[in-house]
């Protein structure tokens, strides 16, 4: 099982570990699959991200994005972080909460040519398809199964995630998620594992 979005915990080679602030950057090099990200960024964080990617040629960018619950972070900084990912040709991980229209517009306007993940996806099939047409892949977590749109997403290309600190607890949550999603699709868990593993290699070799 591959965890498409988790956070700093016990190192594992079957997970993409993402950060949400520059304070976590120094911890990332010990993880085989890693992404440097900043939520609610400040101006100086853009330079910090640029510096880390220059030092770490195998890392991704993430999580970055927009969240309707944020009040202190200027929306103009999201495109700047996206520019850094584009400049370094790095796939990126999106965090989006009730700001899909704005994020989709920015990605379209910037003519993004690198693949990206929309993590913890809970929106509609229509929104998912718009991201997919722009080069994205949705990632489903436990909360995704609780939404009214969930069943409409299962024939789309998706990844699966725990969105937890990496460790025994995240592995238990991920195992249950794989079992539940496989059951919902009417396939065996090992079949789903193979399918998802094939998709994740776009982002992690």
Can you put this structure into words, describing what you see?
This protein is an alpha/beta fold. It has a single domain, classed as Metal-dependent hydrolases (TIM Barrel, Alpha-Beta Barrel). 36% of the residues lie in helices and 18% in strands. It contains 6 helices and 8 strands. It has an 8-stranded parallel sheet, sandwiched between helices. Helix 1 (43-55) links the parallel strand 3 and strand 4 (60-67). 38% of the residues are buried. The mean pLDDT is 95.
What is the typical, i.e. mean, pLDDT?
95
Number of domains as seen in the coordinates: 1
Helix segment tally: 6
What is the CATH superfamily label?
Metal-dependent hydrolases
Q: Which blocks of ≥5 consecutive residues have pLDDT under 50?
A: none
Q: Give the class from helix and strand content and strand pairing.
A: alpha/beta
**Biggest sheet strand line-up:** 1-2-3-4-5-6-7-8
Q: How large is the share of residues in beta strands?
A: 15-25%
CATH 2nd-level architecture: Alpha-Beta Barrel
The main pleated sheet reads as: 8 strands, parallel
Number of strands: 8
Described by the principal axes of the CA atoms, the overall outline is globular
What is the helical fraction, as a range of percent?
Answer: 25-40%
CATH class: Alpha Beta
Distance between the termini: 15 Å
Give the SSE string.
EEEHEHEHEHEEHH
CATH topology: TIM Barrel
